[in-house]
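Can't paste images in this forum, so I'm doing it all in text. The chain is below; anyone willing to post the predicted structure tokens underneath?
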Amino acid sequence: MQVLDDMQLLREYASGHSEEAFSTLVSRYINLVYSAALRSVNNPHQAEEITQSVFVLLARKAAALRGGTILSGWLYQTARLTAANFLRTELRRQHREQEAHMQSTLNQSEPDAWPQIRPLLDDAMAELNEKDRNAIVLRFFEGKPLKEVGRALGASEDAAKMRVNRALDKLREIFIKRGITLPGAALAAAISSNSIQAAPAGLAAAVAAGIGSSSALTASSLYILKGTMQTMTWIKTTAAVGAAVIIALQWHQTAAEKQQIQQLEEQSARQAEAFRAQKAELDQVKQQNVSFSKSMESMARDVAKARASAGVPQASSLAGASASSGGLTNVKKNMLAEMMKNPEMIKALREQQSMTIKLQYGPLARQLNLSPEQTDSLYQILTDKTVRVLESSSATLSGGNPNDAAQTATDLAKETESALQALLGDAGYKAYQDYQSTVADRTLLNSIKSNFVDNPLSDEQQQQLLQVMTSSRQSVAGLNPPDLSQLSPEDRLAKAGQFLQQQEQINQQVLAQATGFLSPDQLQTLGASQSNLLSLQKAGMAMAQKMFGSAATTQGNE
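Text version of the structure:
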């Protein structure tokens, strides 16, 4: 005769109310259910009532249990829940007193581990998840071999062994937390030997006979059954609500993450747009500088031609000129002065300076929240100041009184200060002064930012780099490009060399301090940018030396 498995018998009962099928199930698991109930209530009569209630509940749930259910595990868990409900309603005080008594004897040395773990076993089993609990029930409560355990769990024998061992370790850890320390083998042996006790004779028959009618149940059994069903419904509802909460939280988290990603993408797009706009401004300034240089060269050629047609000696013939001619240096100064008198030259200079001012002071205008009209006025005031300073220097080159030029510079500074205070107010002007102390470093930073294409600088890195550049520059007294036009030929080379040495020192300080917040690739880009700018400064110094005459040339003409 073929032995039907648990779920086949349960389906047979559910579809045709087969008493034989259900009686077979009762016979298989009556001892398991009774033993679990007896451990909980420690009263044989009450354990019988609980056992009967569990199998009545199985009969009612027969059609609803899913195909993969481990019936022994389900019955054990239901017995535990039913017993717990019974104790909460009728034997709460008695159970507390009993557990307190048992806890007081836990640490006593006993040859048998079962008396220690017995009152706590089912509570400990309740802390395991369903798969681990089923593994313990199948292996140690029912005593099934690992091969059958694996078949019931839908796993191989080796996988079942691993599952059982892990579950036993977890159970052992739970007992350790309760003050009971046992080897795994001792715990397994104690459960295997004592967890299942024989149910009273006739109980199985009474249970099977009473399944079809509720009248066979006592009032207390019906009360127990009702409480257990409510508990199981509550557990399922709680699990469903918990799952819904988890899903809602996951959805909310996902939505928040999507929103955060969108915000980051928008911020990145804004930064990219700002970078493109700034790069465009830089390119425009560079183009203006190129155009300005070409204009200067063209005007210098025109002045040279005009002087040649008027009988003024060319620069190449001035090596042996007399002192009355002013020498090569005076000719070049006069040429520069005449160029500065040219309206086209002044226009080109103003346009070039205007673009530079906008690039330098645009962040300040945004910081102060200036209106478009106020921003234009700020740029106009600063551009006028720069151009007028250049015009004053040109007049000095033409032979004007240096004292007059100094007074003009003082008056211009006061005029500019008054205009800025009227435009910005006291607080705004203070912000301008603070900003002014860093404008050279801001300009330098803006000029090199476009070099960090592959590894862009973050806003925080830019701020840190600006602070390092400013503090390093301020640590070197008087680090400003020397005005070679106001120096004697003997001092020009010395001053220019000193400035370049100081700038190289600053670059090294900045690079060393930047190691704390820049990546290796960014440091490499910074170093290359510094070298390129220093080369440009050296080239500019050399050009200025040629324009104003070297010491050797001047000495040869004197």
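Residues 270-436 form one domain. The chain has three domains: 6-217, 270-436, 452-558.
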